[in-house]
Structures are given as structure tokens and as C-alpha cells.
Design brief:
CATH class: Mainly Alpha
Radius of gyration: 18 Å
Shape: globular
Oligomer: single chain
Strand content: under 5%
Largest sheet: 2 strands, antiparallel
Order of helices and strands: HHHHEHHHHHHHHHEH
Structural class: mainly alpha
CATH topology: A middle domain of Talin 1
Helix content: over 70%
CATH architecture: Up-down Bundle
Length: 324
């Protein structure tokens, strides 16, 4: 049993370290190829910080564990709102930009509703996966055009900003020339992420068997929180720096990536049904907490400490309900 928990912990460590190295290498490559900071932030940094969830869900799907695959996606979105946004708001009230609320938070809520409906109605097959990934690409293109034209930052931009400010090596261009070292860093990061995802899924499946709980419960809680650690760290750092607006965008942007990007990629690579437990309870709960978060944000354009405490307490209640 101890070995299994060490396997799980090792998977988490490899995912987080590998994800950071992958982002760092990819950003340096993009800078030397002349990509703009806006495009780098919205694409490479955005995808890179979601890599732990992506690799874990895809590997779980390929291993025949849809409970971990989709539990990770839905559980991460619930944890992002209740746990991460809740803790961040308690530390520093989250100020909400109108553009992020009107555009990005609304889209987050709409795609949560769409996912819950699709999970209840259809298998998550390649057609749905293609549509979800295409939706993310279209959304990113729309955001890039809009932010270039108006300069108005949104949630996806804040997601990359939060990570960049948590790791200063990302936000500063390297003065070194050549692509070999950045390519090596990115390749090493990718290798660590893949290995970490494999360890994490194997450990999670074994722990579920040893504890006598379903893989879905493990995916919704332990795996989801573990793969959301980059978002937790970056949001807490943003709160400590009194950058509550960045914390809001980080959560909303991560939730958009999780459903469209990770859910879409999982459906494309490993088509399966979403487990009935998630369809009946967790997916509707994800919609409810997304709506509550939007309502909290819309009241006074901020999420205060009391509202943050309610969100954090809600996550404790959620975990208590899930575990037998």
C-alpha cells in the first residue's frame, strides 16, 4: 500500500515538474521563432499548464479507466471553483473584470452545461471530441483577435499571466541563442509528464482497489486535486500579490481548457461513455457551482472573503459526500 501511494505521489511530482519544463522550453522556442507574447501566452502557456490534466485523462482513457479520465476533468473544474477560487478569495477578494465576466465566464458556464448534456445523452466519441477541440481553437482565435484589437485581457490571458508571474523564468526572454537547449528542456518536460501520468493512473487504480472505492471517486478527488496543483499554486501566488483579477481569469480559463481541450482530446483518442455516477451527480454539480461562481462574481464585480469561505466549505462538503 505504501508503494502504491509513493507511485501516486511520484506521478504528481513528475507531472508538475515536467509540465513546468515543457512550458519553459516551448516558450523559449516560440520567442526565438518570433512569436508574439500574446500568442505564446494564450496557446503554449495555456496548453502547457493544462498538460497534467491532459496526459492523465488520456492515459486513463487508454487504460480503460473512464472514471479517472472524466472524473479528473469534472473534478478539476469543481476543485478550481470551490477549492482554488475559494481559498484565493479568502486570502484576497477576487476583483472581476467586466470583459472576463461577460465573455469568458459566460462561455465557461455554457460549455459546462453543454458537457453535462452531452455526457447524459451521447457516448464521448471522436465526433464530439473533434467538435470540442475545434471549439477551443475557434475560441482562442476569437480571443487573440479581440485582445489584439481592444487590448482587453480575458480569462485565457490571465491563466497564462498567473503562471508566468509564478515562474519568473517564463516571463523573461532568454538571451541565449539557438534552439537546442530549449528543445532539450521541452523534450525532457514532455517525457516527465508522460511518465508522471502513467504512474499517477496506475497508482490511482491500485488505491481504488485497495480502499474499496470506485475509480470515479479517486478521479474526482485525489487525481483532480493533484493535477490542479499548478492552478492552485498560481492562484494563491496571485492572491498574495493582491492580483485577484488574475486569480479569477486563471480559474475560468482553466475550466474552459479542461472541458474543450482535455475533454475533447480524451474523446478523440480514447472514446468511451462518461460513467453514470458523474452523469447523475458530478456533472450537474459542476454546472451548479459554475453558475454560483458567476453569480458571486456578478454581485459587485468581486468575490469577497465570505463568498470564498462558502466556496471552500462547499468543497469540503463535496468530498465528504463522495467518500464512503
Amino acid at each position: 500500500m505504501i508503494t502504491t501511494w509513493l507511485l501516486l505521489l511520484g506521478g504528481f511530482v513528475l507531472l508538475i515538474v515536467g509540465g513546468e519544463l515543457l512550458v519553459r522550453g516551448a516558450v523559449q522556442i516560440a520567442e526565438r521563432l518570433g512569436m508574439s507574447p500574446l500568442v505564446i501566452g494564450l496557446t503554449l502557456v495555456g496548453f502547457g499548464t493544462s498538460m497534467p490534466e491532459l496526459v492523465t485523462s488520456v492515459q486513463a482513457g487508454l487504460s480503460g479507466s473512464p472514471g479517472i479520465a472524466y472524473g479528473n476533468i469534472v473534478g478539476s473544474n469543481i476543485a478550481n471553483i470551490l477549492l482554488i477560487a475559494g481559498v484565493s478569495a479568502v486570502m484576497c477578494p477576487i476583483v472581476v473584470a467586466r470583459s472576463a465576466l461577460r465573455r469568458d465566464a459566460s462561455i465557461m458556464l455554457l460549455i459546462a452545461i453543454a458537457f453535462a448534456f452531452l455526457a447524459m445523452t451521447f457516448p464521448m466519441g471522436r465526433l464530439i471530441g473533434t467538435a470540442m477541440v475545434a471549439g477551443l481553437v475557434g475560441y482562442l482565435m476569437f480571443v487573440i483577435r479581440q485582445e489584439r484589437g481592444s487590448g482587453a485581457a480575458g480569462a485565457i490571458h490571465d491563466k497564462s499571466t498567473a503562471f508566468s508571474e509564478a515562474d519568473l523564468s517564463i516571463s523573461k526572454s532568454s538571451t541565449q541563442s539557438g534552439l537546442f537547449v530549449p528543445l532539450l528542456i521541452a523534450a525532457a518536460g514532455l517525457g516527465l509528464v508522460v511518465a508522471g501520468g502513467s504512474f499517477l493512473v496506475s497508482g490511482a487504480v491500485e488505491i481504488a482497489r485497495n480502499l474499496g472505492v470506485s475509480e470515479t471517486v479517486i478521479g474526482l478527488t485525489i487525481v483532480a486535486v493533484g493535477t490542479s496543483m499548478p492552478e492552485l499554486v498560481t492562484s494563491v501566488i496571485a492572491a498574495l500579490k493582491r492580483q485577484g483579477d488574475v486569480a479569477f481569469g486563471n480559474v475560468v480559463g482553466s475550466n474552459i481548457y479542461n472541458i474543450l481541450g482535455i475533454g475533447g482530446a480524451t474523446a478523440l483518442i480514447a472514446p468511451s461513455m462518461v460513467p453514470a455516477e458523474i452523469v447523475r451527480f458530478d456533472a450537474p454539480l459542476m454546472v451548479f457551482v459554475s453558475l454560483a461562481f458567476v453569480v458571486f462574481a456578478a454581485t459587485g464585480m468581486r468575490v469577497g472573503r465570505r463568498e470564498g469561505a462558502v466556496l471552500a466549505a462547499g468543497y469540503l462538503a463535496y468530498v465528504w459526500l463522495l467518500w464512503p
